[in-house]
Specification:
This protein is an alpha/beta fold and about 190 residues long. It has eight helices and five strands. The chain has one domain (about 15-170): Rossmann fold, CATH 3.40.50.11530. It has helices spanning about 15, 35-45, 55-65, 70-80, 100-110, 130-135, 140-150, 155-160; strands at about 25, 50, 85-90, 115-120, 135-140. Strands 2-1-3-4-5 form a five-stranded parallel beta sheet, with helices on both faces. Strand 3 (about 85-90), helix 5 and strand 4 form a beta-alpha-beta unit. Helix 3 packs antiparallel against helix 4 (about 70-80). The longest helix has 13 residues, at about 35-45. It is globular. The chain starts with 12 loop residues before the first helix and ends in a 24-residue tail after the last helix.
């Protein structure tokens, strides 16, 4: 079984989501798109669904048309249907307007979205803003794997399959080297 990108299909996001239990919304700065794509693919390879905006056709049209109302609406729909938000933080994120917005929107939702932050290698972790310090901060591959296992723990059948695995086993496989050397280690 493999996770899916809920923004990448002919069905509407809501039609696809109605039978899905978990989804990680990936928040990132446009300049970190390659890292977001790799992290998203890695998450899906570990049987967890994602929402990654670059595959939301309606959002892309809105962005090309500078339709700010529709851009915001598309992002809020993706956020409202996601159970988790993973913000990808790099030095470039400091100039983002959308990443803090997406985090704030997620934290204010009545459903209490699980918010976590993963740091890219170039980020000076001494400068983490307060609003990120109150969420989980993920350092490196092993911590990221533990985070994914916690997400899977809400899928009893998948958790049972992977819970006895260690860093070297199937759950932690990175055969395509998607994570490469992009994550900040503690």
């Amino acid at each position: 079984m493999t996770g899916i990108n809920l923004a990448k299909s002919n069905l509407s996001f809501f039609e696809k989501y109605k039978d899905i239990k978990k989804c990680i919304f990936i928040s990132y700065k446009r300049e970190n798109r390659a890292e977001a794509l790799n992290i998203g693919e890695y998450i899906m390879e570990n049987n967890i669904d994602i929402y990654l905006d670059v595959f939301d056709d309606k959002l892309q049209v809105a962005a090309n048309d500078d339709n700010h109302e529709l851009i915001t609406s598309c992002l809020e729909k993706g956020l409202s249907k996601s159970t988790h938000l993973l913000s990808i933080i790099s030095e470039k994120t400091r100039d983002s307007w959308w990443v803090p917005y997406e985090i704030g929107y997620s934290k204010c939702k009545k459903s209490k979205t699980n918010v976590a932050t993963i740091l890219l290698k170039d980020f000076n972790d001494q400068d983490i803003p307060s609003y990120l310090r109150v969420a989980r901060i993920i350092y490196g591959k092993y911590d990221f794997h533990r985070y994914l296992q916690e997400v899977l723990s809400d899928y009893p059948e998948l958790y049972n399959k992977y819970s006895s695995h260690t860093q070297e086993n199937e759950m932690y496989s990175d055969e395509k080297n998607l994570l490469g050397n992009i994550l900040k280690e503690k």
